[in-house]
């Protein structure tokens, strides 16, 4: 199961450069610990509990390594089952349908190789 960890940093209430630096440290640590970055979300193939525990451990390590109160700069930090997400850039799934090639009008099929 792919599990997602969303970390939204508080750019509104802290200096941009400071938050950006901390985000870079967190990003590097998450990737180093097996997470993959999907846009603004870090994902990993682990059960929910293990993924959340690992994400917390990574942030704790970043905080200890850099002597920075990492959590102070975070607005939201949550985990979710990434397979339950909906990509709104794609059409709704009820608009997607599968048609057999022989049922599509005006379609010419060219076969190459052996039959």
What's the arrangement of secondary structure elements?
Elements: E1 2-9, H1 16-32, E2 36-38, E3 41-45, H2 48-66, E4 74-81
Antiparallel strand pairs: 1-3, 1-4, 2-3
Please state how the strands of the largest beta sheet are arranged side by side: 2-3-1-4
Uncertain segments: none
Radius of gyration: 22 Å
Mean pLDDT over the residues = 88
Per DSSP E runs of 2 or more residues, the count of β-strands stands at 4
So how many helices? 2
Summarize the helix and strand pattern as letters. EHEEHE
What is the helical fraction, as a range of percent?
25-40%
Task: Quote the beta fraction.
Answer: 15-25%
For the termini, the CA-CA separation is: 39 Å
Global geometry: elongated
**Subunit organisation of the chains:** single chain
Main β sheet profile: 4 strands, antiparallel
Description:
The chain is α+β, with helices and mostly antiparallel strands. It has two helices and four strands; from the N terminus they run βαββαβ. It has a four-stranded antiparallel beta sheet with strand order 2-3-1-4. Strand 2 and strand 3 (41-45) form a beta hairpin. Helix 1 crosses helix 2 (48-66). The radius of gyration is 22 Å and the shape is elongated. The two termini are 39 Å apart. The model has no long low-confidence stretch (mean pLDDT 88).
């Amino acid at each position: 199961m792919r599990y997602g960890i969303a970390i939204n940093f508080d750019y509104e209430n802290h200096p941009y450069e400071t938050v950006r630096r901390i985000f870079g440290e967190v990003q590097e640590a998450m990737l180093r610990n097996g997470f993959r970055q999907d846009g603004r979300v870090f994902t990993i193939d682990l059960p929910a509990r293990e993924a959340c525990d690992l994400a917390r451990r990574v942030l704790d390590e970043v905080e200890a390594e850099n002597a920075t109160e990492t959590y102070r700069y975070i607005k939201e930090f949550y985990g979710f089952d990434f397979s339950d997400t909906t990509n709104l850039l794609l059409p709704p799934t009820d608009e997607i349908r599968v048609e057999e090639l022989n049922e599509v009008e005006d379609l010419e099929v060219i076969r190459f190789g052996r039959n």
